[in-house]
């Protein structure tokens, strides 16, 4: 095999490997630095807020002692509770938003999303739970 053909094949193989790694990295699951257990606790806290007297408040103070500890620990700057389907926790740092929402196609399924994380995507799913 001549030398030019050999280097062309090696270069082509290297390009395929680089492209495969790039595609794989771009499809990797986003992490916000929290564990799956913390994501579950955030989702459960959001569900508890949907079922609490907080839903009667128009403005929810971010340091309100009725807020679950894990929510206060996120250092929220604004919280929106939209019964019976959504809770949005906005933050000043990345990720800038946690959003728990009920699936329209299955009212028992809830999804915790994260947004504003600098990944180039508006929202990424962190957790999906089913509540009976």
Briefly say what this structure is.
The protein has helices spanning 3-26, 36-50, 69-72; strands at 76-82, 86-91, 97-103, 106-115, 123-130. It is of the alpha+beta class. It has one domain.
Structure notes:
This protein is of the alpha+beta class. It has helices spanning 3-26, 36-50, 69-72; strands spanning 76-82, 86-91, 97-103, 106-115, 123-130. The chain has one domain (33-130). The protein is 33% helix and 29% strand. It has a five-stranded antiparallel beta sheet with strand order 1-2-3-4-5, covered by helices on one side. Residues 16-29 have low confidence and may be disordered.
Main features:
29% strand; 5 strands; 3 helices; alpha+beta; 132 residues
- Into which percent range does the helicity of residues fall? 25-40%
Q: Sheet with the most strands?
A: 5 strands, antiparallel
As for the number of domains, it is 1
Mean pLDDT: 81
**Gyration radius, in Å:** 21 Å
Topology pattern, helix = H, strand = E = HHHEEEEE
Instruction: Indicate the low-confidence ranges by residue numbers.
Output: 16-29
The number of helical runs is: 3
CA(first)-CA(last) distance: 66 Å
Query: Strands across the major sheet, in which order?
Result: 1-2-3-4-5
Oligomer: single chain
What is the total tally of β strands? 5
Please state the overall shape, judged from the principal axes of the Cα atoms: elongated
Strand content: 25-35%
The class by helix and strand makeup works out as alpha+beta
């Amino acid at each position: 095999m001549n030398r030019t053909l050999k280097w062309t094949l090696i270069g082509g193989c290297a390009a395929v490997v680089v492209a495969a790694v790039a595609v794989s990295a771009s499809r990797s699951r986003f992490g916000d630095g929290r564990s799956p257990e913390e994501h579950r606790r955030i989702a459960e806290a959001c569900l508890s807020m949907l079922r609490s007297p907080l839903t009667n408040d128009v403005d929810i103070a971010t340091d309100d002692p009725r807020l679950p500890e894990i929510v206060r620990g996120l250092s929220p700057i604004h919280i929106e509770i939209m019964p019976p389907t959504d809770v949005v926790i906005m933050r000043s740092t990345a990720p800038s938003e946690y959003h728990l929402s009920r699936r329209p196609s299955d009212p028992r399924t809830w999804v915790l999303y994260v947004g504003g994380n600098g990944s180039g995507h508006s929202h990424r799913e962190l957790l999906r739970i089913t509540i009976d």
